[in-house]
């Protein structure tokens, strides 16, 4: 039978360890975020619906984004045991220069709309972490100001080729003169995708003060105070815009851009050229023949063509076929360091985070971006240790199995379907009256 007694003070004393309360509310909430999804939950509470949905949303039914995230969940890791993993190296060279992590900050549009510190917060955080920062053509900070915020780090400029070619190339020239080392040419935007959340929210630049937005803003006064008391939105690519996001994108995107245009752009740029938006093997091979320095497997975060290919699913085949000839980068759906490690194991040299970065920014400004990078960095290192590897170079396809959820229809069934004759409706002749 259990013997019980009244606890003595000397027995309780070692158990009574009270933490000093954290009085800084921002630090308290960010310290409590252990995953990117935790940062997302904080961001949703602090950001008006239209701005949050612009980050969160994708095209049409948002199937592409859901599938991309599901693909990372549908993997199985294969660890090795009894390895000395007391130290791990999470860095290597990307496009000929060192990075401290195999991920960087992706180009994002209208970033100061999400949180007023915008791209400057991202550039500062990237500089501290030793990872690249990519500025979007649709960014809300100038090329020169981002360079000033990250003077010694890796700055990449993302280009949308406009209908106004001279204006596009003027941006390229500015980025080159500012010392950006990589041009990231996005090629999956002949027209804007159907981003239905933005249409339903009436998302415009600048945001319209309607009854709905005012009501939605009441529990989020800090966002509106920051927005109304800081410099009005301006862009990396244009001074001002008044209208909907869809109107702006359709005004800018050029549906005539082709491989010859890409070759011409490449000839104008003195640094590295990476083509973003590759979604099949044949295009990857053509880009290798064109001599680009890297390709990014991406479906634009699911924001262009819904039901587009899943980049992570494409990765093994593309890596086998062209990985020896060009660097392969990957984005879309990355929400953890384990996702990053799986990508590297299957052949990616580098990955990019967009939404994960913006969740941190919305959750806590520059400190929130630091927290995003810290969470992912910790997860990358921990996953590597648990797999039994000391360096990124040791990761290989044997460490990961992609489990099958979505499978193509078997070839014989497709052939059988194509063999079925198409029935045509009989053409009825009109009766002619005498």
Give a quick precis of the structure.
With 434 residues, this protein is an alpha/beta fold.
Largest sheet: 8 strands, parallel
Spatial sequence of strands, sheet with the most strands: 4-13-12-11-10-7-6-5
CATH fourth-tier homologous superfamily: Aldolase class I
Domain module count:
1
CATH architecture: Alpha-Beta Barrel
Number of helices: 19
Secondary structural class: alpha/beta
Instruction: Let me know the average pLDDT.
Output: 88
What level of helicity do the residues show?
A: 40-55%
Distance between the termini: 112 Å
Strand content: 5-15%
Stated plainly, the CATH topology is called TIM Barrel
Number of strands: 14
**Highest CATH level, the class:** Alpha Beta
Describe the structure.
With 434 residues, the chain is of the alpha/beta class. It has one domain (25-401): TIM Barrel (Alpha-Beta Barrel), CATH 3.20.20. Helix content is 44%, strand content 12%. The chain contains 19 helices and 14 strands. The strands form 4 sheets. It has an 8-stranded parallel β-sheet. A two-stranded antiparallel sheet has the order 1-14. β10, α15 and β11 (294-297) form a beta-alpha-beta unit. The longest helix is centred in the C-terminal third of the chain and has 33 residues, at 355-387. The protein is globular, with a radius of gyration of 25 Å. The model is unreliable at 426-434 (pLDDT under 50).
């Amino acid at each position: 039978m259990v013997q019980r007694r009244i606890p003595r003070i000397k027995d309780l004393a070692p158990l009574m360890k009270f933490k000093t309360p954290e009085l800084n509310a921002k630090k308290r909430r960010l310290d409590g975020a252990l995953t990117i999804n935790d940062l997302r939950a904080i961001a949703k509470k602090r950001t008006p619906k239209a701005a949050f949905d612009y980050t969160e949303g994708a095209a049409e039914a948002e199937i592409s984004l859901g599938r991309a995230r599901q693909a990372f969940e549908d993997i199985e890791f294969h660890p090795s045991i009894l390895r000395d993993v007391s130290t791990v190296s999470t860095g290597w060279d990307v496009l000929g220069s060192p990075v401290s992590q195999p991920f960087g900050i992706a180009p994002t549009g209208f970033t100061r709309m999400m949180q007023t510190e915008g791209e400057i917060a991202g550039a500062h955080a990237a500089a501290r972490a030793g990872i690249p920062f990519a500025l979007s053509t649709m960014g809300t900070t100038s090329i020169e100001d981002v360079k000033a915020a990250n003077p010694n780090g890796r700055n990449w400029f993302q280009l949308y080729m406009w209908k106004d070619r001279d204006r596009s190339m003027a941006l390229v020239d500015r980025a080159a003169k500012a010392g950006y080392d990589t041009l990231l040419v996005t090629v999956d935007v002949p027209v804007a995708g159907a981003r239905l959340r933005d249409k339903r929210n009436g998302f415009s630049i600048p945001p319209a003060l309607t009854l709905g937005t005012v009501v939605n803003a009441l529990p989020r006064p800090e966002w509106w105070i920051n927005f109304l008391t800081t410099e009005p939105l301006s862009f990396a690519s244009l001074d001002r815009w008044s209208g909907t996001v869809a109107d702006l994108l359709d005004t800018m995107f050029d549906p005539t851009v082709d491989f010859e245009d890409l070759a011409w752009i490449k000839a104008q740029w003195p640094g590295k050229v990476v083509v973003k938006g590759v979604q099949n093997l044949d295009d990857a091979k053509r880009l290798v023949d064109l001599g680009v320095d890297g390709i990014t497997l991406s479906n634009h975060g699911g924001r262009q063509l819904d039901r587009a290919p899943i980049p992570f699913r494409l990765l093994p085949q593309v890596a086998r076929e062209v990985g020896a000839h060009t660097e392969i980068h990957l984005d879309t759906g990355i929400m953890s360091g384990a996702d990053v490690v799986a990508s590297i194991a299957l052949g990616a040299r580098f990955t990019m985070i967009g939404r994960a970065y913006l969740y941190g920014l919305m959750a806590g400004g520059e400190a929130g971006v630091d927290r995003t990078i810290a969470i992912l960095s910790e997860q990358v290192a921990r996953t590597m240790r648990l797999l039994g590897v000391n360096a990124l170079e040791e990761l290989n396809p044997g460490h990961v199995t992609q489990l099958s959820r979505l499978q193509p229809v078997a070839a014989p069934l497709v052939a059988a379907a194509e063999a079925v004759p198409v029935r045509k409706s009989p053409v009825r002749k009109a009766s002619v009256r005498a």
